[in-house]
Amino acid sequence: MTISLNHPLIKKSQSLIALFLLCLFISLLSDKFMTSANLWNVLRQISVNVCISVGMTLVVLMAGIDLSVGSVLGFTAAVCAGLLKNGLAFESMDLFVGFTVLGAILVSVLIGLVLGLFNGWVITKFSIPPFVATLAMLTIARGLTMLYTEGIPISNLGTAFEFIGSGWMLGIPVPVWISIFMVLIVVFLTKKTTFGRYIYAIGGNEKAAFLSGININKIKLAVYGIAGMMAAVGGVLVTSRLNSAQPNAGTSYELDSIAAVVIGGTSLSGGIGTVTGTVIGAVIIGVLNNGLVLLDVSPFWQQVVKGFVILLAVIIDKMNQKNK
Amino acid sequence: MKKKYIYILAFLIIAILGYNSVYFKKLSDIKKTQKESFDFKAFADSIYYKGILKSKKTIALTDLITSIKTNQEAAFTKHGNRLGIGNSAYFMIKSTGKIIDIKDGIYTIADEKNGVVFIDTKYIFGNDLRDASGLVKLTDFKTNAQFNKVSESLNEIVRNEIPKQTKNVKIGDSISFSGAIKLNKKQTLFTDLLIIPSQIKLQ
């Protein structure tokens, strides 16, 4: 029995096959790649991108884009670290409000949600293209981060907080558990809820979705809100891993997340794609990054290679759409 | 009826999360505890008298400028100190010159090799001295407020010391001085530099 390259199973598993071939290729060239320490390290590293990318998947499924996730990550990470370390002081009331790890995380996720909702509000209320609206938020959030941190890292956040990014639970790194949890939530949203079906419907044909009675603005608002929240979760992971919030944290993370979404098979024109595909896309990016480092490729060439991989993924996506 | 239970459940969850998220204290108590636990004045004294004044890392202003013009990146790495990111860094420098003007605590100095520079002996604020010294690390302090408190104490020492050192100084005198300056990588001109002094000596 022979299976052609156009077989639906092959087409459906394109990203997985690409990941397998990539792993095979790198393991042939580097004996360090297939060690458990390295593989856990790769998973720990990609957990941030996974969190951001699953949020981005919902946005792209709706034929949108969110360029602000990296900056939102940076800002929420800084706020989380700032609250944890300095709390809030109200001189006039002689009051100090301290934050526990849980409190700081909740506030930063809430801020991520608010910034995401703001993106959604601008996009729906003023009919501004998502590219422009989120580009503006990219600059706003980065500026806010610089103002909040004064360009100085906020460090020494305590061992309890550090555990989130560096700890292990049941033999698996904590960030991996968190990213799995986030993925499961978004998979549930997309597969098992009407909200998920509305996202696909809007991405497939916005006009038809509107005419069939879907409240498009409400769904868009929620999706951008979720993307902001996911970025904030990524921010918590980055900060806890370093035990420090860096003012430039998250710079260009939006590109890695868009790359993961596209490589994972989600169509930039919306309506087609899966969260699991995005996870595979994020793993491909992570493995590629790790492999290029292990193979001692210059960081500049790494960027070139990554760019070509994204380009290849988009071309394959276009060709698939044409064939349909 | 079902909605009522959902609201009650949501309220309970929010209440439990809120209770475990924040804690309240008197700000005055916090400040008192911080004061008791760390003597900032003693720490700043030691940084100033044993660190800054005796530092061998203080570079002659002329050498610094030459070094920056030769290899900016290397000069910033070797002689500069900075806490965060960005193009600016702080440097501890020394030089000599003649006072050509004194106005509102700002000495205008005709530096022998570097043209006109200014020394601010009155408005000594900010983190220039702390950061230029490279002796105080952010990670040594629990909060940013404590870290900034070091600057306050250090500036206070300088505000007290400089008037003693410049008691008999007048226009026309030659002085040697050391202090902190902030330079930017995009800076191409090194004239009109403003120095926050750590020491001024009549020659």
TrEMBL record, chain B:
Give the residue spans that cross the bilayer.
6-24
Q: By its UniProt entry, which SUPFAM superfamilies does this protein fall under?
A: TM0957-like
Top-rank taxon of the source lineage equals: Bacteria
Q: Does the keyword Transmembrane apply?
A: yes
Q: Which Pfam families match?
A: DUF2291
Q: Which Gene3D superfamilies match?
A: Envelope glycoprotein gp160, DUF2291, alpha/beta domain, Envelope glycoprotein gp160, DUF2291, helical domain
Q: InterPro entries from the xrefs?
A: TM0957-like_sf (IPR036215), UCP033535_lipo (IPR014582)
| UniProt keyword annotations, A-Z | Membrane, Transmembrane, Transmembrane helix
What name does this protein carry?
DUF2291 domain-containing protein
